Amino acid sequence: MCYAIPGKVKRFQDKFVIVDYFGEERRAYNELDDLSIGDYIYAQGGYAIQKIASDEAESILMTWKETFFELQEVDLQLSRMDLESKDLSLRVVGLLDKVNHGFSLKTDELEYILGLEDEKEKEFICKNANFLRQKYHKNACCVHGIIEISNRCARDCHYCGISTFNNNLIRYHMDADEIFAVAQKAVKEYSFKALVLQSGEECGYNTRELAGVISKIRRELGALVFISFGEISLEALDQYYQAGARGILLRFETSNEGLYNRLHPGGALARRIDLIRAADKRGYLVATGGLIGLPGATAHDIVNDALLAKELNAEMYSFGPFIPSHDTPLSQSFSVSPDYMRMVIALIRLVDPAKGKILVTTAFETLDPLARRQGLLCGANSVMLNVTPRRYRQLYSIYPGRAHQSQSIPEQIEETIVLLKSLGRAPTDLGI
Ligand code: 5AD
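^ Those are the sequences you sent over. The predicted structure of the assembly is below.
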């Protein structure tokens, strides 16, 4: 099983390396010091992360080559636009025309799209988003693994099932050796190339301890590491970067400051946004986004959320539906419909056709068992599999009934590969 295609180094360009994938050239930031022209590498998130022995790379490429072009063809068929489409209002046609010609839509135009009610028009927006995804990102779909290392949390976010509101939860905390062992299994046994380490906030690790694990994962396993520990200090941000972390997953949750303040006692939206900007400035790949359907949030807020994520230079958009969680102040609230969530994903693709990846979140899959397929067909091109040991997963209960909760890693992989193949997507990340 492989979640990245080996690329062959063609030439160097400043800090970048130009890599060939079946005749297509991509650029990846290079931090590997012993790389030469003709070597094979894996790239993830636009980073050259690992060198691979030529014979191993060539045998993987042989297997890939047979399916790669077939997959591309399937994807192309599925993402083709039906230009004959009728029954669309002139305004919708005009707005899509604008996006398809590379112009940005204004806030009120995006809001109009999100407010559409006509089923055919909504379907067309989703198709257009899929068309843009194919045009700019081709059929690559990244498959990251997430390890939930601790469910301890010091924050009292009103929606979150692992917040301090939940006194009925058994708390767990993996130690450094256990984190490494889980990462090792994900990389060595299941071939993951990028891992997200996630925990509640201020959950009891010290920075040195986590930096140690990150550096060991980077050094010994060669995986790209994303950190997702909530709001951390700038010093910690630096230390994790020095240890080798190159991505951060930190949602701003909502761009509406009033709503943010109501839901996060003692929190400050500006502080969170500043941290995301600081991470971007230091060179972290930024994965960010928010919760869709928080009580009190409007369509205007959601449009602003998408625009804010773009402004924050999102390499990956992580937007999921809010799902009411027991033992929290919002336990009696409601989620948005899967159909609305699909439109939000399409909207994000219209906001950022060319650069960021869009994740189909587990929360969306929890709302709708078909969400992964649906999401990938309306602009998304990324999924995350949960590689946390099963005994901990049910305790990482940010919301109830999480999809894939009890599936083993091989089962999740199998299901993902079958789906991606049926959609003509290659489970890979080809650099930029
Ligand atoms: N429903 C959906 N997502 C949630 N999160 C926290 N609580 C919920 C919920 N009830 C999300 C937050 C956080 C991420 C780790 O989990 O957006 O950033």
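Residues 7-77 form a domain with the SH3 type barrels. fold (CATH 2.30.30.140). The pocket of 5'-deoxyadenosine is lined by residues 159-161, 251, 253, 291, 320, 322-323, 325, 363, 398-399 (CB under 6 Å).

Shout if you want it in another format.
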